[in-house]
Amino acid sequence: MIFCLLATGTLFAQKSAADATKAQQQAGLETITLGGGCYWCVEAVYENLVGVQSVVSGFAGGKTANPTYEQVSSGNTGYAEVVQITYDKKITNLDEIFKVFFTVHDPTTLNRQGADVGTQYRSAIFFKNEEQKKAAQNIIAALTKAKAYSKPIVTTLEPFTKFYKAEAYHQNYYANNKSQPYCQMVIQPKMEKFEKVFKDRLKKK
Fold this sequence. Notes:
The protein is of the alpha+beta class. 42% of the residues lie in helices and 20% in strands. It is built from 7 helices and 8 strands. It has helices at residues 2-26, 39-46, 69-73, 94-104, 130-145, 173-176, 181-197; strands at 29-36, 52-60, 80-88, 112-113, 116-117, 123-127, 156-159, 164-165. Helix 2 crosses helix 7 (181-197) and helix 4 (94-104) packs across helix 5. The termini are far apart. 30% of the residues are buried.
């Protein structure tokens, strides 16, 4: 009986997720999951890109169910800090999403972004389908051919399996903590670079 209830619950959760995805697609929305170091930085940038509906900080790429920030921070879970971005395909697209991604973080440093070190800070694209995988491969190939960086791109392309939302205090971190030293010294320069390069694609405040 317990097994039946668990199986039913699993099937219900899968159906709910599938229904949510279908509803998003019908509304012209798409979701992509990206890891580019500390998720506070990446979240702050994409929240200001026109066409982006929502940005949620969390974890992807590991196997342990319901990981906590403390567990992921150990660097032993396989998870990466990521943001799950939902965007309107009528206003922006994968190409622009990836251009922003490769502008605001360093994709050539293995398991590191600045002082943030560990596999949890790896540069990673978690693709949900072949379209996302192909688009990621194309932009990496184009950047490599153009010699956009002095070192090889080490961004991993990993099939998306599960996303776990981070604790509430991690959400909208930059917007809620702009006076914090990390925000001023690490996030603010990324924001300034993003706003300069994509000045015509910023949300109106």
